[in-house]
Amino acid sequence: MSHSPRSILESVYAYKAFKGQQEAIIGHIIEGKDAFVLMPTGGGKSLCYQIPSIIRSGVGIVISPLIALMQDQVQALDQLGIRAGVLNSSLSAEEAKKVKRNLFAGNLDLLYVAPERLLMDGFLDMLASIKLSLFAIDEAHCVSQWGHDFRPEYMQLNVLRHRFPGVPRIALTATADVPTQREIVNRLELSEAKIFVASFNRPNINYRVVLKDNPRQQLLRFIRSECAGESGIVYCLSRKKVEETAEWLRAQGFNALVYHAGLESELRKRNQDKFLQGEGVVMVATIAFGMGIDKPNVRFVAHLDIPRSVEAYYQETGRAGRDGLPAIAWMAYGLSDVVVMRQLISSSEASDERKQVENRKLNALVGYAETTLCRRRVLLNYFEEQHPVNCSNCDNCLNPPETWDGTIASQQALSCIYRTGQRFGAAHVVDVLRGVENERVKKFRHDKLSTFGIGKGLSKAAWLGVLRQLVAAGYLAVDIDGYGGFYLTEQSKEILKAEKPIFFRKDLDASTKKAARSMRAHSAVAKGGGTLDARTKSLFESLREKRLALAKKKRLPPYIIFNDATLWEMATKRPGTLRDMQAISGVGAKKLESYGKEFLVVILQTG
């Protein structure tokens, strides 16, 4: 196919211009060179190997870790008129034979396979008998032993360099800190590959962290006030909590589904399909759900428990707003989260080296949760990217938190913990500090200590905030192998000796009305370029209804027909002819032919 990358971008994908480094990456691969691409979710990684596969002679082999992701991509490519196939365990013997016939006949531009199949006896030999345009290794972070998405088979993919030395390889991921980037390059033997690192910034995502205070009710208020009727993901740490949260959300009137590794595979697949193909579905899940989920109109990702690392948080929140429209990353956070996560790390069978790495990663995430700075700047700084100004699209920018000098309070708390024997939890320590003469305090004669009652000036909630932030800053630790008591760390000497002051944030619920108003205003501007007039909004909803009806008829996820951003552009520009419709971003030649008339009728009727 002798077309230029730009002509394919415009005629097939119906985009007017490449994003960021896409054009440079595509040109590099077309020249037959290797590349490592780090690009955030929604940045357009797939075009970086799809367009070269169309242009170069032969078929592009895409190595992907998930069956759902492969099928989703192939369905989307089919709607664009691109010749793509998949070989995985979900196919019947006859379906697999048909794909192989197309492969040997040269009727495929792209073939998606799992790494396990690629490495099977005979499969590499089969590939050696056909013309190959490239190898694309998607979700390349799966090669990292330090990540929660580790797939052992990925470590064997360096075989491609030796078996097919003349075929260019492109490894792609959305999430990798600098050590993980080095590991990917080393494991896949990409030392001579050109490295393309795009910005990690997702400007359309609003980041928020709220202090846990009845988190279910906090979640309910958030969804109802800002994301009613929208699709979203709620992450929980345990399978039990996933089940209970989904059941509770259903009782509140939400279409909530469950996904975790303990479910039967058929039920997991059914729930995932419902999420991908439905509108307004909330998926409650563990981290088992999400990698490769290509649903672009996920409007929120909520965490009821903190993830293990900034990478995991970034990857999970990155599933929101892939269409570029406003989305929200909301997380409820508390001291108990830190304690539980440290217990999980401590009780794991990992090596001491791995545990140290995981604790450092957790510390970075806790620092993000506690920060008073622009969250986007903190997040990007973790990936060694600078954001020169505050983002004006996170809770700390929209509602700058108040801080207070907690040096004396910290000294009082640390002294109290030391004098009570460094073996009691938050409730008891706070009772001693506030001078509460209860049975437990008297039993241990802690009412006789010099620290008894020295903290009467602060409320119970304020003291709990002090203890939480001391743990987050590393001045206190929790005995996770015993009864959860506090003990002092080496760092705590800095506070006790008054070598440095310490400032705390005042604990306020970050999801205030002011933040909500700011987010709604931001959404309005991002979607419509101004206020949401009723006529445009009504047309947008009518177009969504048409899309859903067509999707059900064709058994496709709605966004594969058109994503929300395309429908919004239709609603605002109101094309009056098919020629006008073709000017809408996302309406390529094949989609114009397949769906143009039906959507045009809706626009003209709603007028």
Task: List the main descriptive attributes of the protein structure presented here.
607 residues; alpha/beta; seven-stranded parallel sheet; six-stranded parallel sheet; 17 strands; globular
| Rg | 27 Å
Question: Structural class, judged by helices and strands?
Answer: alpha/beta
Task: Please tell me what the overall shape is.
Answer: globular
What's the overall average pLDDT, rounded?
90
- Stretches where pLDDT is under 50 for at least 5 consecutive residues are 509-531
Strand content: 5-15%
Strand order, sheet with most strands = 3-4-2-5-6-1-7
Helix content: 40-55%
β-strand number:
17
Tell me the major beta sheet: 7 strands, parallel
C-alpha termini separation: 40 Å
Number of helices: 28
Structure description:
With 607 residues, the chain is an alpha/beta fold. Helix content is 47%, strand content 13%. It has 28 helices and 17 strands. It has a seven-stranded parallel beta sheet with strand order 3-4-2-5-6-1-7, sandwiched between helices. The protein has a six-stranded parallel beta sheet with strand order 8-13-12-9-11-10, with helices on both faces. A hairpin with a 7-residue loop joins strand 15 (476-478) and strand 16. The two termini are 40 Å apart. Mean pLDDT is 90; it is low at 509-531.
